[in-house]
Amino acid sequence: MKSDTHSLPSLRWDIFCRVIDNHGDLGVCWRLCADLAQRGQVLRLWVDDPSALAWMAPHGCAGVTVHAWPHARALQDLVSDATFKVGDVVIEAFGCELPEAFQTLLAQTKPVWVNLEYLSAEAYVARSHGLASPVMSGPAKGETKWFFFPGFTPDTGGLLREPDLFEAQTAAPDGISASLVNASQTRQCKFDRRAWLSMLPIDKPITHNERLVSLFCYEPAALPDLLKQLSQADAPTRLLVAQGRPSAAVAAATQALRMPSCGSGQLHISPLPYFSQTEFDHLLWACDVNLVRGEDSLVRALWAGQPFGWHIYPQDDLAHHDKLHALETALDMPADLIQFHAVWNDLEAAPLPVLSQATLGRWRDWSRQTQQRLLAQTDLTTQLLRFVIQKR
Ligand code: TRH
What we know:
Blueprint lengths: L11 E6 L6 H15 L3 E6 L5 H4 L7 E5 L3 H9 L8 E5 L6 H10 L2 E5 L6 H6 L3 E3 L9 E5 L16 H6 L22 H6 L12 E5 L7 H9 L5 E5 L3 H13 L9 E5 L5 H10 L2 E5 L2 H9 L3 E4 L7 H12 L4 H10 L12 H19 L4 H12 L1
Parallel strand pairs: 1-2, 1-4, 2-3, 4-5, 5-7, 8-9, 8-11, 9-10, 11-12
Antiparallel strand pairs: 6-7
Helix pairs in contact: 8-9
The chain binds 2'-deoxy-thymidine-beta-L-rhamnose (TRH).
């Protein structure tokens, strides 16, 4: 599916990303690069730790080249290389400071310089989106950076959503999001849920009566409570656990409960391999409930349109509490889902609300309505392209 941004001029982009911890910084930058490239843009991604790309994007993407973060020596070489040209657009992701020598080059060629910020539903986002930030010191003194804030309302930069995302999803046999797509559009990419699940490299095949819950979280204190609840439920659940911190957290929780590592009662726990971002999307489309975390997987869970719980990235000063409340308000979450989030994010030490069929049914309705509402918003990449062209 072509979006109207395919007809925009092809620009050269330099995107800078520093991996702080976890996978979100690189995850967002990669999705943005791949989306821009698919719309005819040409990108260099400069990243200090590209190791996670080996599983996130094992096949790379035509139009995107990945480069080591340019430290002093490499920059000397760039500065003295007459063939090296700074891109038409420079993005510093999440306020990562550009290397000084690169700022010197940038001051000569004056690209559009954008600071892509973290996603939040808080009120400051709409106030700050699109504002100029004059550079007051350093080699690029006198230049202007522009703030670009992702967000959930039309007065923000929007959410990443590739033009073909809903075409890809519509082919799911359970008809996920079918109403969102014009049936006459060519379906380039078909997702067959049953076939996908049957190919999963896990310890035990999934049976049709199992409820599927994906788990991608940090270390929620309520995790043992969740495992206990699922093991005592009246229907079987398969918990599909992402690699890394989630699987370590589940191992600790089963140990604390003296539960076998594969679960007990109605609960079977299956560890997952690391997926590519495309396969991670498929996981979220295939599951009945998605427990996600951070920034990028939250957005993907919204696009999956299934009930979800969000484990927000915890901050030392508890700033994440306001961020969580802002999301709950912006998305008009049902009261019991807000309660689930309070417990799941350790804001309240109470029992986790029970994930009954009736509750999940209501959360699913809400989730699909929310998805439809957010689809009315212009996606982030389209907005960014228009913004950059306007500032050139
Ligand atoms: O990894 P995260 O917790 O990243 C966090 C958050 O973005 C947080 O806001 C930020 O401040 C912090 O990093 C520094 O969660 P997130 O954002 O969902 O990123 C995970 C990425 O990993 C996402 O792009 C999906 C991808 N992924 C895969 O591609 N395959 C997998 O198997 C898994 C588990 C994740």
